[in-house]
Each structure stands twice: as structure tokens, then as C-alpha cells.
Design brief:
The structure is a single chain. The chain is about 25% helix and about 20% strand. By secondary structure, it is of the alpha+beta class. The chain has two domains: about 1-230, no CATH class; about 240-425, Glucose Permease (Domain IIA) (Distorted Sandwich), CATH 2.70.70.10. The strands form six sheets. Strands 9, 12, 14, 15, 16, 17, 19, 21, 22 and 23 form a ten-stranded mixed β-sheet that branches. Helix 2 packs across helix 7. It is elongated, with a radius of gyration of 24 Å.
């Protein structure tokens, strides 16, 4: 029904594959304020990812509200309002509501008053992506068809576009959904005309513009989309796997997740070595138990060696980060093992702890939330250590079914004895 709204006008042009960028009938769209990260591009490649799960055909509003509330971490009334705006506009333009929700979370953590990365409002939508394209209440764009460029019109009658309106949640969602509709129709043409970095999804053009300069931004948006689908209940995530007598699951929602640092990497300008793995994540994400077991440590790492202290979660959550050592708030679990080995996992830098020492936890149970406690420079992430029979191992190998991992060749495998501390007891 929606596609009937499109009007098409054939214009004289060569085939898309032969069109020069200089001769295009539109000005190249490019987002200001974003640059690709060569370091991040080494962490994950386009062919690392499985096929993305589909969205449900008929979206239940109550379940979608729940998913928005859980991922955005906003109050029920705010989640209801945002979910309503997303569902209304995505129905109008025929696009994926879970993708719009993922953009809202990834770009601003669902805050409508932000301005950054060359964009404004809930999804940091660039006003320049509309300049020269909006005329007479319709967005004009071109696609390749039968050896020529065809102009198409997307009617946008409900709101009149203006940069200030991008700060209004309902209007921002409306214009975001409209632009996604355009890019879904146009992305194959853009990929033919412009030199592109390899990418998987048309949402990369929403992030970069006509020329995609990296795929890591789309990876993170699609991770948030998987999280929304998991909370909605239409996607279960990866199944548990059995290894070394352990039944294992992912440490974070929306798997697979990307490992950003491995054991042995330099820390503090080479004064020490990294003891675990870092997994890309954002503050407030739930941290999950990778296997069933008993909490052996729940508390805070203070400055110095052997100064980690167990304490009730309420007390631990009240300790200011500035008083903490490098581990911050953390939780360790001794896992149930069918075999002779002993396995302990420790999740560190937590924003909040949600379990008590001695508590039994199930596979996949929430034990805390991602944070950056104990850190001085890095952005929030999950630091995970896995200890087998008293020695730290590379946890990314144990959990490779749930992670995207590309260990750098220069990091040598190191086995370091575990320092006796509360974490090992």
C-alpha cells in the first residue's frame, strides 16, 4: 500500500554504473563530524556476522514498549510515548521499527535534546541530508532502473521539515523513518556510484551518507536492534553451548559481541599487561552470568594489590568511582562444572552490582550492568576474566560462539598465576 505513494519520473542519464559522481543530479550527502577508526575496523569484518534476525510482521505495542523501556532504560511513560511515535511513523513509511529504536538508543541513549556528530535530536539526524531533496512536501531521490536514473518522490505530508523540529521527538522519528525508507530504496544505487567500504546494511548510509567509510557503526546499531528483538521476545539469541564440562552462554545481550582487547595487551604505557578481555558495550547494559554457579566475590577493588573487598551490593554501589582501584566494582562466579577443572569468571568495571556474595545464579542471569568504574581514560565496556584452575585464560576462546574476535598477532599467550585475593576464594 505504501509503495503506491511513490511517483516516478524517468530522467535522461547514463546507467548508474557509468555515472560520474560529478554529473549526479543531486549533491552528495555526507555527515559532518564523523571519521572512521582504523583500530575499530580491525576488530570485526563484514563476513564475521551471521544473518540478522527478522522483525515480526505485526508488532505488538505492549511488547515493543517493554523492549524500548529495557534497552533505553527510560520510565514507562517515556517508553510508551517513544514506542508510539516509532510505530506510527514506521507504519507510515514501511520501515523496521526495531531499526529506528536501535538508532535512537545508539545515537543518544534515547534522549531527544542532543546535538552531536553533525546531527540533531533523538537520532542525531543531519539536516543536510534533506537540503536540496525536499520540495513541495516530498523527498526527491534517484535510483538506477533499466540503465537509467529514475527520480522518485516520497510524500512527507504530516510535518513540515525544519532544523529546529529535529529536537522534537515525534518529528525526529518521522523524518528518520522517511530517510530510512529512501535509503532502503536507494542503497544499491549508491553502492554502484560511490566508492564504498564493505558494509552489510543500508543503515550505514544513514550514518555516513552516500559514501560509507566504515562498517563498525552499523555493527553497533544492529547489535542494539538484536537487543530490542530479544526483549520483545521474537529473537532468543544464541543457544547455550557445552564446553569443558560447562554450559555456556553470552556475557551480554545481542550476541555476537565484539572483543576490543585481549590478554597480554599493554596497559599503563607498558607497565602492566591486560589480564582479561574487553567487550564493546555501553553503560547500563545488563551483564549476564556466562554459566551457572555461586557468587564468590561481590564488591569493590580499591587501589593497591590485594585490596579488593567484598560487601553487600547496596554498599558497593554507593562507593564513589574516584576511590576505586583499576577493577572498579566487580563480581566473580565459581561455575558449575561437570569435570575436574575449576572455573571462575569475573566481570569488572560494573556500573552497578545486582547480586550478593554466596548467591546462586543461573546461566544468563543478570549480575550487574556495564560501566567504567575504576577506569581513568577508557569508555564503558565489559572487562571479563576467566580463571581455570587458578590461572587466567583467554576467555574469548571459551566464549567464541558468542563473540567476534580477531586477536592481534603481536599479543603472545601468557599464563599468569592468579594473585591470592578475595576474588579467588
Amino acid at each position: 500500500m505504501f509503495r503506491a505513494l511513490f511517483a516516478s519520473l524517468l530522467i535522461a542519464s547514463s546507467a548508474a554504473t557509468g555515472v560520474s559522481v560529478d554529473s549526479l543530479p543531486w549533491k552528495e550527502r555526507a555527515r559532518r563530524g564523523v571519521t572512521p577508526s582504523p583500530e575499530a575496523s580491525l576488530r570485526a569484518h563484514v563476513d564475521d556476522w551471521p544473518e540478522e534476525p527478522p522483525s515480526p510482521t505485526n508488532v505488538d505495542r505492549a511488547r515493543f514498549e517493554h523492549a524500548i523501556r529495557e534497552v533505553c532504560q527510560i520510565k514507562p511513560k517515556a517508553a510508551s510515548t517513544l514506542a508510539g511515535h516509532i510505530l506510527e511513523s514506521t507504519r507510515e513509511f514501511g520501515v523496521d521499527p526495531f531499526l529506528v529504536g536501535a538508532l535512537a538508543h545508539r545515537m543518544t541513549r534515547c534522549q531527544p535534546d542532543k546535538e552531536d556528530l553533525g546531527g540533531r535530536g533523538l537520532t542525531l539526524l543531519p539536516k543536510e541530508f534533506f537540503h536540496g531533496h525536499l520540495r513541495d512536501g516530498a523527498y526527491r531521490y534517484h535510483v538506477a532502473q533499466r540503465g537509467a536514473l529514475v527520480e522518485r518522490l516520497l510524500p512527507m505530508p504530516r510535518f513540515r521539515f525544519g532544523p529546529a523540529k529535529l529536537f522534537r521527538q515525534e518529528e525526529n522519528v518521522y523524518f528518520t523513518a522517511a530517510l530510512l525508507r529512501v535509503l532502503e530504496e536507494q542503497h544499491e544505487t549508491l553502492d554502484e556510484i560511490f566508492e564504498q567500504e564493505p558494509h552489510r546494511h543500508y543503515v550505514s548510509h544513514w550514518i555516513w551518507g552516500d559514501k560509507v567509510r566504515g562498517a563498525r557503526a552499523e555493527d553497533r546499531v544492529l547489535t542494539d536492534r538484536r537487543r530490542l528483538l530479544e526483549h520483545y521476545g521474537s529473537h532468543r539469541g544464541p543457544r547455550p553451548v557445552r564446553k569443558h564440562g560447562l554450559e555456556l552462554g553470552p556475557p551480554l545481550e545481542g550476541s555476537p559481541r565484539v572483543v576490543s582487547s585481549f590478554p597480554g595487551a599493554d596497559r599503563d604505557q607498558g607497565l602492566r599487561r591486560h589480564r582479561g578481555i574487553d567487550i564493546e558495550s555501553v553503560r547500563g547494559e545488563p551483564v549476564l552470568a556466562i554459566a551457572a554457579g555461586v557468587v564468590t566475590f561481590s564488591g569493590v577493588d580499591y587501589p593497591g594489590r590485594g585490596t579488593a573487598r567484598t560487601m553487600p551490593k547496596a554498599k558497593a554501589n554507593a562507593v564513589p568511582s574516584r576511590r576505586m582501584g583499576k577493577g572498579g566494582r566487580f563480581v566473580c562466579i565459581r561455575h558449575d562444572v561437570d569435570g575436574p577443572d575449576d572455573y571462575v569468571s569475573c566481570s569488572m568495571h560494573l556500573d552497578r552490582i545486582e547480586v550478593e556474595i554466596g548467591q546462586r545464579v543461573a546461566l544468563g542471569e543478570r549480575i550487574g550492568t556495564v560501566g567504567r568504574t575504576g577506569m581513568r581514560v577508557s569508555s564503558p565496556h565489559l572487562h571479563l576474566e576467566v580463571i581455570r584452575n587458578g590461572r587466567r585464560i583467554d576467555g574469548s576462546k571459551l566464549l567464541e560462539d558468542f563473540l567476534v574476535r580477531h586477536p592481534p598477532k603481536y599479543v603472545k599467550k601468557r599464563k599468569r598465576p592468579l594473585v591470592a585475593s578475595a576474588a579467588a576464594r
